[in-house]
Amino acid sequence: MTHQPERRSFLRGQFRHKTVMRPPGAVPADAFPEACSACGDCLAACPESILLKDEDGFPKVDLSLGACTFCGDCASACETGALLPTTVWDWRAKPTAECLSLQGVTCRTCEDHCDAQSIRFRLATGGRSEPRMDPDTCTGCGACLTACPTNAITFFQHQPSEETPC
Ligand code: SF4
Ligand code: SF4
Ligand code: SF4
């Protein structure tokens, strides 16, 4: 299905106010509704099956379904230029309050599954320890979320000059 120009203009306005995890290589958020035809070719191409359509029909990544390998198949399948070749993106992981380790339960599962070795634990009071993802080495791949027994990891867009949210 393709979008009519009026609908694209409407969606451009909408996207200024919401942040969606687009596939790696996506053009900037403001330009995405214009560039993407919502054809679904990237969804079909993803070998990890982690791409879904959002409520407007555009592709979004759902890392709860699996990790992104940055294989580039989604960008290769995109004929409109909405997805461009890349091996990185600006999403980073951070723990949520549901983390077992933050509640004093021993767990290092995310650390064990992080190929980039971006996760270190900082001791806290009461037998708790806090997982800390290094935004300079975290790739945002989502392998930690896939492995986490309580889905206690969320993602944010990182700008190198910004402080890491705590
Ligand atoms: S880079 Fe590969 S694994 Fe990641 S969303 Fe695209 S097709 Fe899927
Ligand atoms: S795997 Fe999940 S619950 Fe375990 S330490 Fe990591 S974030 Fe916390
Ligand atoms: S998103 Fe990937 S690189 Fe980042 S902490 Fe999780 S497993 Fe490691």
Automatic annotation (TrEMBL):
Domain 4Fe-4S ferredoxin-type: 25-56, 57-88, 129-158
Stored Pfam families: Fer4_7
Keyword Cytoplasm: yes
Listed Gene3D superfamilies: 3.30.70.20
Cofactor(s) demanded: [4Fe-4S] cluster
Annotated InterPro entries: 4Fe4S_Fe-S-bd, 4Fe4S_Fe_S_CS, NapF, PSI_iron-sulfur_center
GO MF, any single term: metal ion binding
UniProt-annotated location(s): Cytoplasm
Broad class of the protein's primary localization: cytoplasm
Residues given in the record as [4Fe-4S] cluster 3 binding sites: 138, 141, 144, 148
Coiled-coil region list: none
GO CC annotations, alphabetized: cytoplasm
Organism superkingdom: Bacteria
Sequence similarity: Belongs to the NapF family.
Keywords of the record: 4Fe-4S, Cytoplasm, Iron, Iron-sulfur, Metal-binding, Repeat
Subunit field text: Interacts with the cytoplasmic NapA precursor.
Residues the entry annotates as binding [4Fe-4S] cluster 1: 36, 39, 42, 46
Name of the protein this chain belongs to: Ferredoxin-type protein NapF
Residues involved in [4Fe-4S] cluster 2 binding: 68, 71, 74, 78
SUPFAM superfamilies on file: 4Fe-4S ferredoxins
Gene giving rise to this polypeptide: napF
Function per UniProt: Could be involved in the maturation of NapA, the catalytic subunit of the periplasmic nitrate reductase, before its export into the periplasm.
